[in-house]
Amino acid sequence: MTSSAIAASGLRKTYGDKTVLDGIDLNIGTGTIFSLLGPNGAGKTTAVNVLTTLLTADGGTASVAGHDIATEPKAVRKAIGVTGQFAAVDDLLTGEENLRLMADLHRLRGSESKRVVAGLLERFDLVESARKHASTYSGGMRRKLDLAMTLVTRPEIIFLDEPTTGLDPRSRRTMWDIVRDLTADGVTVFLTTQYLEEADQLADRVAVLDQGRIVAEGAPAELKRQIPGSHIQVTFTAVAEMDAAERILPGSTRDDEALALRIPGDGSTKSLRELLNRLADHSIETADVSIHTPDLDDVFFALTGHATTEADAS
Length: 314
What we know:
By secondary structure, this protein is an alpha/beta fold. The protein contains eleven helices and 14 strands. The longest helix has 16 residues, at 169-184.
C-alpha cells in the first residue's frame, strides 16, 4: 500500500453563482501518476490552483504532502512544484541562465547550484542549447526547460496542468517519458489533461471530472471495463473451425471475410482463459486471439454524454 501524497474531501470552489468544484474527493498515493481528465472548463485548473494554495477553497479540506492547504500553505509550497499550460521561462535569458536564476531564488549557492543546473541540463537533453536564448527554443524545448526549472528544488509532488497542450506528437511523447522517469525517482505526479491517450498512457489512476464533479475514478483499464463493448476476437485458419466455434460460443458475431468471431466479454484475463479452455475442450484450433476494450474516449462519452474536446463554459 502506498501512503497518501494528496487527499481531499468535499473540496468546493465557486465564482459568484457558478460552482466550479462541487465537492470533490481525492486520495492519491505517493510515487504514482494521477490524472484529472476533463474538457476545458471542467474545473481541472481550478483544482490545481486550490491544491497548490494559489486559490482558497470555499469548502472541504485537503492535505498535500501531509500539510493542510488552509493552515500550512508555506509547507505545501515547499513540498511541491507546479508547471502550467504555458512555459514560464524568461525569453531574454539562456536555458542555463533560467535554471541558475531558479537556483538563486531557492538559495542554492556555489558548487551545489552548478551541480543541480548541470544535472538538469543533461537530464532534459538541453546541454547543446544551454547557452542559447530561450526565445529560440521550440515549444517542446521550452516545456522541458520549464519542467527542469520546477525540479531545481527536488519537489515531492509535481502538478502538471495540461503540460503537453500545443505540442507536436514527438514532443508530447518525449514529455511522457520524462513524466514516467519522475515517478521512477519516487515523485508523485498530479496531471491534468484533456488528451485521453495521455491519461491512458501515463496514469496509474484517472478521475473523470465533468462540470465540477468527479463522475468516475479508477485505473484506466478498470474504467474501460465498465463500458459495454468489450469483446474477444478469435481468428481461425479455416471456415470449418469457425463454424464449430460459433456453435459452442453463443452470442458471437461472424466476420466471414476475416475468418473471425467476435465474442462479448468483460475484457478480463479470466474470461479469455475460459474461452480458450472451451475451444481446447472441443479441439478447435485458432490462428489468433485478441482482447478489445473501449478506450477512454468511450468511457468519457458514456459518463458525460459528450467528448473531452468539447469546451464547456469557463
